[in-house]
Amino acid sequence: MAQFTEQSSFDNSIHVTHALKFPLYATLEPHEHRRNIERFKTNGFQLLKSGYCWVAEFRLEELKFARIMPLQALLTAVSPLFRSELSDARIAWSQNTVLVTAVDDLFDGGGSMEEMRNFVALIEKWDDHSEIGFCSKNVGILFNALYQTNSRICAKAALVQNRIVMDHIAEHWRLMVRAMMTEAEWASSKHIPATMEEYMSAASHSLVGTIFQSAAYLLGPRLPEEVVGGEEYGRLWRHTLLVSRLLNNVMTYGREPSRALALGDSVAGVRGGGQGGDREGHLGVEVGAAEAGVRRRRRGCSPVMQGDVLADE
């Protein structure tokens, strides 16, 4: 960086080389501004302190089964939500990223079947969770962090939106944990979904729904209830979740191929590849179809769904 700063004042080719080496989609806005590079130097931890204090407040570090990574979560939020006026949205994004990762770890071998069912029951009750109680310390810590954090986020969002949004956020969490419970039961019984529709009944409710929606309410523009409950918003949201989930599945093949085997067999079977076929290739087909759906919704066009996976109900 020092070399770039020194040479760039005298040689325009340095700027060209830098732009070609680091295209727009591969750069983070903070790294493109000298004052922010100075602000984020190694002895300045202001941005991280609040994240680690939040982790300590809710005792999340006691969840030994979970990947509690506030720094990584913050970095995912900084890129799309960099400007200072988006601080609340950035915090909501990063905190819910930590929470959904911990919940995912609970349902992915970190908890017993009893703990998973208890957690789902607590999310279903939400405000009335005291009627259920906690079957373990881990469940109590995780649910308390999730519930209290989202209560704070929704209180801020209510001021921005001029309405109560808690019910909508809670419903996203319910959909997510129901889907996770279904997949956990499939894994426990070694069940492979027979059709793509059966698989998508769980897979379509991906982790990013809880992250994106809470942040969206804090961006500034009003999102009236009739908009978020409308058909157009719902279709766009559904395709976005499908893209994120299917991309995650494709990446899983690179990291943990054995863990993704059952999913790949299901997808390949529906697409005609059969077990042992090109599982990753079939997932790529689904990703492309879902991404096309997102683009159509963004253009405001009526979707003409292609394939049984994305057929609108």
UniProtKB/TrEMBL annotation:
InterPro entries cross-referenced by the UniProt entry: Isoprenoid_synthase_dom_sf (IPR008949), Terpene_synthase-like (IPR050148), Terpene_synthase_metal-bd (IPR005630)
Keywords: Lyase, Magnesium, Metal-binding
Pfam family for this entry, one: Terpene_synth_C
CC cofactor: Mg(2+)
GO molecular function: magnesium ion binding; terpene synthase activity
Keyword Lyase: yes
BP GO annotations: diterpenoid biosynthetic process
Keyword Nucleotidyltransferase on entry: no
SUPFAM superfamilies: Terpenoid synthases
Alphabetized Gene3D superfamilies for the sequence: Farnesyl Diphosphate Synthase
Residue ranges constituting the Terpene synthase metal-binding domain according to the UniProt record: 58-259
Domain of life: Eukaryota
Homology family: Belongs to the terpene synthase family.
Name of the protein described by the UniProt record: Terpene synthase metal-binding domain-containing protein
Organism: Oryza glumipatula
